Amino acid sequence: MSSEIILKVENIGKQYRLGLVGTGTISHDLNRWWNRIRGKEDPYLKVGEANDRSSKGDSDYVWAIKDINFEVKRGEVLGIIGKNGAGKSTLLKILSRVTGPTTGQIKTKGRIASLLEVGTGFHPEMTGRENIYLNGAILGMTKAEINSKIDEIIDFSGCLRYVDTPVKRYSSGMKVRLAFAVAAHLEPDILVVDEVLAVGDAEFQKKAIGKMQDISHSDGRTVLFVSHNMAAVKSLCTRAIVLEHGTSVFEGGVDEAISYYLNLDNTNGSETLRYFKEEDFKEYSFFIQSVGIKGVSKNYEEPLTREDHLILEMSITKHTTEVLVVVFRFKDGDGNIIFVTNSNDAQMNLENEGKQLLSMHLPNFFFNEGNFSVDAMITNGKKQLFFEPDCIQYTMLQEAKKLGDWMGKTKGALKPKFEWLLEYES
């Protein structure tokens, strides 16, 4: 392992047995032991299925993660993203030595601190101050280290008033504040963080992200960061990997990883671009080649952020001079209609024959972050001729923000950026 590499993961896999029985029965243990003393491979590593929680399998064994390989350099912030059940937390638990791998090995240089679950290692009957010492000791800090940093830890957590109160009276947010404060002040070579920001409030998110940035940039330490908040991943991470069904399916730049993640399980290619078949339009006097939405300066496969000017395009071929009106219905992630727009209002109806491209521009900072879909409709001004529900689907990400800024999501499907004026009256 080169001097630049601080963490190397080689063919890591973790297998679990499903059902009420634990890791195996006595007969399985005896079978494993008999193969081991004969120098043969564990026979149960040859069985087992991919970790797809949504489908029924035929095996009692499942690979939570399998054949994971990656390297992390000193000072890097590696984002690990994927859907629920993809194996992110299992991987972090193995890296943190909470559980051991079934296959593979991990090579590290230096001390690892992890913050995987709220209040892990906290004793509810002990006070916050006592739990700082307990949690610090679990993470590998000496009493002298904790004594030298106790005031800084308490101040960072923002729990000064309650620090001598039993932790059982803390809210989940207060627990995670205290736990993160201890882990962040451990001065680890590698800090492992799993979805901590989902619990904290705006103030805590600013402090936590700012602290992780200081740890990686100023102190040259490595951070492994798991989150479903793509804005935080985009702002904090220097590189990312995508997990799907327990395997690594992508490793590379943050923008590319987010784009890959957003398009997982999409059988029609990019959700932002929909192609149609000409044979489906035999009964119509027109043929829609495609409908798509993208950033004005982007390709269709690139992720959309709130700071992008959007363009919605329809490529259509008309066989007659019948006037056609194009209607788009925008819906939020729950299927509620946000607004409806049509080409007639813009006096941009389709009148001529031949192939043509109809474009509609949407301003930046208009949609809130979240998932959206568009229904496409064609009318002749009197009756509906064609209707395709959820014709395209797209995800809006937060705009790029400075580390330490609030990265939470506000309510509502739209979040327009209006012009504000302030005038002083005499």
How does this model look, in words?
This protein is of the alpha/beta class. The chain has two domains: 5-262, Rossmann fold; 273-397, Coagulation Factor XIII, Chain A, domain 1. The chain is built from eight helices and 19 strands. It has helices spanning 26-37, 88-95, 128-139, 143-157, 172-184, 202-218, 230-236, 254-262, and strands at residues 5-17, 49-50, 61-73, 77-81, 103-108, 112-115, 190-194, 222-226, 239-244, 247-252, 273-275, 286-295, 304-305, 310-318, 325-332, 337-342, 354-362, 370-379, 384-397. A six-stranded mixed beta sheet has the order 6-7-8-4-9-10, sandwiched between helices. Strand 7, helix 6 (202-218) and strand 8 form a beta-alpha-beta unit. Helix 4 packs across helix 5 (172-184). The radius of gyration is 27 Å and the shape is globular. It starts with a strand and ends in a 29-residue tail after the last strand. The model has no long low-confidence stretch (mean pLDDT 83).
What are the main properties of this structure?
single chain, 426 residues, alpha/beta, Rossmann fold, Coagulation Factor XIII, Chain A, domain 1, 2 domains, 6-stranded mixed β-sheet, 5-stranded mixed β-sheet, 8 helices, 19 strands, globular
Structure described in brief:
By secondary structure, the protein is α/β, with parallel strands linked by helices. It contains eight helices and 19 strands. The chain has two domains: 258 residues, Rossmann fold (3-Layer(aba) Sandwich), CATH 3.40.50; 125 residues, Coagulation Factor XIII, Chain A, domain 1 (Distorted Sandwich).
